[in-house]
């Protein structure tokens, strides 16, 4: 009754099942591993001291930015140069913008420094000037933003002097000098100048250090792959049973032989 399993058509079906089930199990296991890695990273981050409470270190000692160094106080010395306003940023559920100045260091590279946040919109709100001369700033280190960062504007077309995303990639075409692939936010609204109503921008948690939506997406994908594996096996048994019943009916004369 089960000789049909040896026909060319069923060889193809059997080969598909033999390959599909291990593939689904492998992908489900991989997604589960990704979820467990994120949980482990989150637990490690919870056990670490608050980055903002750790001793400040020179900027170069904390680069490149990682989950370990993100939020750590970084010290840099230089002179403020170009200023950019970063619109569309909320603080305490209020609309406003960041005041960002580039600090030219002795290395020739510039460090983006978010001196503070102002309510309102760029162009209609007075912006305090940055301190003149050489200054030493201590700010919480942050990784460059990307298109998935909250508040980022990647649509382009912003007025001159405004910036949609804080990153070296977005600044490289706006200034004639190199920019660090990182930025700092000052715990105080300004570094020696007049705050002018600016409020400090809190440092954000490092990406990948918490149980965010992506972590639970990995868990959801895990379940989907295992369901796919079970579905493939279920459909194979169902097809085999239907084919066997059809062969039995032919043998009993209950149905015409399709061959």
UniProtKB/TrEMBL annotation:
Task: Keywords in alphabetical order, please.
Answer: Cell membrane, Membrane, Transmembrane, Transmembrane helix
Disordered, as annotated region: 43-72
The record's principal subcellular location, in a coarse class, is membrane
- List membrane-spanning regions: 12-32, 219-239
Q: Which domain of life is it from?
A: Bacteria
- PROSITE patterns, alphabetized: SURF1
Entry similarity comment: Belongs to the SURF1 family.
GO CC annotations, alphabetized: plasma membrane
Q: Which residues form a coiled coil?
A: none
Membrane topology value: Multi-pass membrane protein
> What does the UniProt entry say about where the protein is found?
Cell membrane; Membrane
Name of the featured protein:
SURF1-like protein
Q: Does the keyword Transmembrane helix apply?
A: yes
InterPro entries of this UniProt entry? Surf1/Shy1, Surf1/Surf4
């Amino acid at each position: 009754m089960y000789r049909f399993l040896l026909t060319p058509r069923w060889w193809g079906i059997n080969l598909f099942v033999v390959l599909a089930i291990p593939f689904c199990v492998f992908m489900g296991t991989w997604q589960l591993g990704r979820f467990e890695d994120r949980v482990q990273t989150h637990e490690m981050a919870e056990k670490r001291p608050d980055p903002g409470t750790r001793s400040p270190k020179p900027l170069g000692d904390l680069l490149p930015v990682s989950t370990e160094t993100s939020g750590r106080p970084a010290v840099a010395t230089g002179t403020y140069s170009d200023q950019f306003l970063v619109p569309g940023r909320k603080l305490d559920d209020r609309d406003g913008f960041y005041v960002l100045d580039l600090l030219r260091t002795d290395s020739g590279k510039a460090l983006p420094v978010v001196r503070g946040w102002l309510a309102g919109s760029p162009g209609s709100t007075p912006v305090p000037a940055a301190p003149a001369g050489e200054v030493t700033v201590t700010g919480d280190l942050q990784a460059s933003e990307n298109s998935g960062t909250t508040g980022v504007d990647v649509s382009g077309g912003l007025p001159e002097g405004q910036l949609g995303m804080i990153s070296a990639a977005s600044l490289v075409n706006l200034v004639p000098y190199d920019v660090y692939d990182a930025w700092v936010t000052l715990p105080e609204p300004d570094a020696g100048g007049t705050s002018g109503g600016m409020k400090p921008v809190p440092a954000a948690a490092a990406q990948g250090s918490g149980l965010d939506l992506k972590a639970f997406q990995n868990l959801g994908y895990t379940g989907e792959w295992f369901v796919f594996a079970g579905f493939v096996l279920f459909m194979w048994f169902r097809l085999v049973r239907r084919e066997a019943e059809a062969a039995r009916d032919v043998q009993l004369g209950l149905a015409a032989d399709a061959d």
